[in-house]
């Protein structure tokens, strides 16, 4: 795993070194269009994300990513703990932002002890949990979506994934991939 992470980092550095900055892109009249996160599928590790110490990004042939090689996983350890994965984007005035993401759940849990809360905090709106995904969400990748709505001013939007696990009832791993931030 360590070797893989090193490879990813090297690849990320290479990308940084070879791609020039998007110079001259006007910020003022950004169109409400396109996917705006630089690392939606974790192919560059946790670049662009705030990740807790136990969130790892894996490339595992036995547990393939939704797309690409990597995904974020809240690995089940059967201990009582909470882990956070979070990122923030800017939503231009008069734009709507739709956050789409894929989750896969692998569990040996026998009670409702483990869950993944997905939230969206938007400037001017109290933070809100949009999805509370339980341990029995299924072992196939499944897509979810949440939106900010529009506003006349520029805002920030923070998407957060908070996994909670309790010890003693079994192990749950929540995998997350392809978290896209699309303006419209
Ligand atoms: Ca991926």
TrEMBL record:
Domain of life: Bacteria
Signal peptide boundaries: 1-23
Keywords, alphabetical: Signal
Protein's recorded name: CBM-cenC domain-containing protein
Organism whose genome encodes this protein: Micromonospora qiuiae
């Amino acid at each position: 795993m360590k070797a893989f992470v090193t490879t990813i980092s090297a690849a990320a550095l290479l990308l940084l070194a070879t791609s020039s900055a998007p110079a001259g892109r006007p910020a003022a009249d950004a169109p409400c269009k396109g996917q705006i996160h630089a690392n939606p599928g974790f192919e560059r590790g946790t670049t662009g994300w705030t990740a807790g110490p136990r969130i790892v990004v894996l490339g595992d042939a036995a547990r393939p990513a939704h797309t690409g090689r990597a995904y974020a996983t809240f690995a089940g350890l059967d201990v009582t703990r909470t882990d956070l994965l979070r990122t923030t984007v800017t939503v231009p005035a008069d734009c709507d932002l739709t956050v789409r993401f894929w989750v896969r759940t692998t569990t040996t849990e026998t009670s409702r002890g483990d869950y993944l809360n997905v939230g969206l905090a938007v400037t001017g709106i109290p933070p809100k949990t949009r999805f509370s995904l339980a341990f029995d969400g299924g072992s196939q990748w499944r897509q979810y979506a949440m939106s900010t709505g529009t506003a006349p001013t520029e805002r920030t939007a923070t998407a957060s994934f908070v996994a909670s696990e309790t010890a003693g009832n079994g192990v749950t791993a929540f995998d997350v991939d392809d978290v896209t931030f699309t303006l419209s």
